[in-house]
Structures are given as structure tokens and as C-alpha cells.
Specification:
The chain is α+β, with helices and mostly antiparallel strands and 251 residues long. The chain has three domains: 71 residues; 82 residues, Alpha-Beta Plaits (2-Layer Sandwich), CATH 3.30.70.330; 85 residues, RNA-binding S4 domain (Structural Genomics Hypothetical 15.5 Kd Protein In mrcA-pckA Intergenic Region, Chain A, Roll), CATH 3.10.290.10. It contains seven helices and 14 strands. α6 crosses α7. It is globular. It starts with a helix and ends with a strand.
């Protein structure tokens, strides 16, 4: 592990120890895919602390850990997470906004990234996961995203959003190597695909993946920072030229 990863591991172990010593639940802030990967790499070392992983529906980039469990403590404590809907005051005059627009507005309001989870954009509105201690502040302080006046309210769930529905795509690859599949899914050269691995931007089932020759299997979830996420569904047939016809669900 590099120094930065060791620091993440130390911080997580400190939280696990505090939970175990005090018999109380301890929650992390929202963790990036890289930080979550550090936990997964050392998962066995945390087994004494009864860790639960929160990752929404399993397709989100930012997660949270809870140290402690009901069996040890005799009671349950939910993850301190709210879902906020950010929507325009006047839909007719609103701009089409991007993830960067919403995140920038939140940062400009003085909100730290660690207390925010994923931002799910649906054209002119967005759904935001946040730590519930920040809910009231965000509702009162976030009034504008770019040139669009917005309102924020707490909601119970996120509806199905068309842009987040998986699209099944067939690609032709020479093998099930992860670098070749990534290359085909995102229309990259093999060199550009390899660079994503060396720059630590590829995650397999939540874990950092630096081995670009790793063989995928059906059900594997691949996240590529800056590009998106796909589920590898396996090979259906072989083309006349001997290529594998592989199926992927791309989000």
C-alpha cells in the first residue's frame, strides 16, 4: 500500500477500535471508490468490528461503512443518510444541468465533499445523498445552480431515471481480459485503456483493479472513473472471425 492508502486504513481501524471498545455504532463519512477499495483489500482485519457496507442499490460510486452490529449491541441504528431532491423553481426556464453544475453549487455553498454521496442527475433536477446532519443546511443554503433558481426537499426514494437504466450492448473482443472489454465499451485504444489501469481509475466489484489482464466473468461490475460503469454479462457466441460476442449492461 502507498502512504495515502495506509493513512485511510489507519483511520478506518481507529474507527473500528472505537466502536468495539465503546460498544457503539461508528459511521464513516462518504468514501470514494478508492477509499472503499482500501477497506475491501483489508476486509478480514475489520471482521471483529461487525462492519456493514452501504452502497445504495449497489451501483453508486460513494459508499459508507458502519462499525458495530445489532447482534453485539442489542439494538439497530440506521445509516445517517438522507436523499434530497434539487429541482428548479421554474421548470420552464430552467437549464439542463450537469453533475459538475450541481457539485459546484454545493461546494460554493461551503459544503465538504465527504458529507455528500452520489449525485444522480435527471436533466434539470438531481437527487443527492447526504449525511443527515447536513440536510437542513443544504435545504436552506442551496438556492441556485448556475443560473437556475432551485429548491431542495427531503424525499424517501429515487424514482427510476431513464439515463440510469442499463443499456445492453454487444461488443466483439479477442478475450475476456478486462482491458480489452473496457477498450471496446468506451471506444478507446488499448494504450488508452491500459493507462486507466496504471492511473488507478478502474474498479472491479468495488475494488481497485490494476491488473489489466484480469479475466472477467459474468456478473462482474466494472467502474471506470470519468467514463461510467458496466456489468459484464458474459459471452454469447463466437463470430466468423473468431471474436467473442460479449454482452455488457452499460450505465
Amino acid at each position: 500500500m502507498i502512504a495515502e492508502e495506509l493513512e485511510v486504513k489507519k483511520r478506518l481501524l481507529d474507527m473500528a477500535d472505537r466502536s468495539y471498545r465503546n460498544n457503539q455504532y461508528v459511521f464513516t463519512d462518504f468514501l470514494s471508490m478508492a477509499d472503499m477499495s482500501v477497506y475491501f483489500e483489508c476486509e478480514r482485519e475489520f471482521s471483529y468490528a461487525g462492519v456493514t457496507v452501504w452502497n445504495g442499490d449497489g451501483s453508486y460510486e460513494r459508499g459508507m461503512l458502519r462499525f458495530g452490529n445489532p447482534e453485539a449491541f442489542g439494538y439497530e441504528e440506521d445509516f445517517p443518510i438522507d436523499i434530497l431532491l434539487i429541482s428548479p423553481l421554474a421548470e420552464k426556464f430552467a437549464e439542463k444541468l450537469s453533475h459538475r453544475d450541481f457539485l459546484g453549487a454545493l461546494m460554493n455553498a461551503g459544503i465538504e465533499r465527504d458529507v455528500l454521496g452520489d449525485i444522480i442527475v435527471d436533466e434539470k433536477r438531481a437527487y443527492l445523498f447526504c449525511e443527515n446532519r447536513m440536510t437542513d443546511y443544504i435545504i436552506s443554503s442551496l438556492t441556485r445552480v448556475r443560473h437556475t433558481s432551485v429548491m431542495v426537499k427531503n424525499v424517501d426514494s429515487i424514482p427510476e431515471i431513464e439515463s440510469r437504466q442499463p443499456k445492453e450492448v454487444t461488443i466483439q473482443v479477442a478475450s475476456e481480459r478486462i482491458d480489452g472489454v473496457v477498450s471496446k465499451v468506451y471506444h478507446l485504444s488499448r494504450g488508452d485503456s491500459a493507462e486507466l489501469f496504471t492511473s488507478q481509475k478502474v474498479f472491479l466489484n468495488g475494488r481497485l483493479m490494476e491488473n489489466y489482464s484480469h479475466q472477467l466473468k459474468a456478473g462482474d461490475i466494472v467502474s471506470v472513473r470519468g467514463f461510467g460503469r458496466f456489468t459484464y454479462k458474459g459471452c454469447g457466441s463466437v463470430s466468423k472471425k473468431g471474436k467473442l460476442n460479449a454482452l455488457v449492461d452499460v450505465i
